[in-house]
Design brief:
The protein has one domain. It is built from 14 helices and eight strands. Helix 3 packs across helix 9 and helix 4 packs parallel to helix 14. The chain is globular.
Length: about 260
Amino acid sequence: MENTIPAIHHARRTILGISFFGGMASDAIEAIRDGGLLVSPAAPALKDLDSDAGYRDALLGADLAITDSALMVMVWNLMQHDSMRRLSGLKYLRELILQPDVRQAGNTLWIMASPASAATNLQWLADNGFAVEPEFVYIAPFYSSQIEDPPLLALLNRLRPQHVIITIGGGTQERLGLYLKQHLSYLPAIHCIGAAIAFLSGDQVNIPVWVDRFYLCWLFRCFSEPKRFIPRYWSARKLIVLLLRYRDRLPPMRSS
């Protein structure tokens, strides 16, 4: 399917060949409410834009990419003397779960990373007045580089929820979102929000609003699980090189 979302030009920047929306969360939600793919690329995955073809295609095929990466926003604003706004996946999710149509019974399907994380996340949603029926929760299998998931397609085509919220890891969630966009018989609003709900539910370290506002989520995650997150965020320094070299241009794919 071709992109169907009208451009909101005043809030967009083309960075590394990707059109990023840096406006308000409410505007981003409204832009894809009637169907489309929203992605929130984080630096540890975005650094692979020149080497991961599937991830690259997913970002190019998305209808809206929000500025979740604090590193990207800071480097871009310094390079370009710009004042692009950061819209984190966490801030986006906080706004998303307040929407009446998202909270409406049977209107939202959640794709979770594991039974354990699903239990934690669903309990937090229920505690906050957002009860989700078991039929509207899908536990993602382990996906290879080539994503195919006929059971998920069948479930979505049968239930036809207006919203699909994907809470699995960055780099995979975007490819899954594009797969759904290209293969479903209808086009829901597909929200790739990654670990954002885990920061609220307690499935990962809690991220207060002020931490997100001051671009410190990465630091809290590193303190909470240093062996897991320090290597991940250290590897993201490659994104700085891509930004300095290509700025608004899409980097060419590196030969394997």
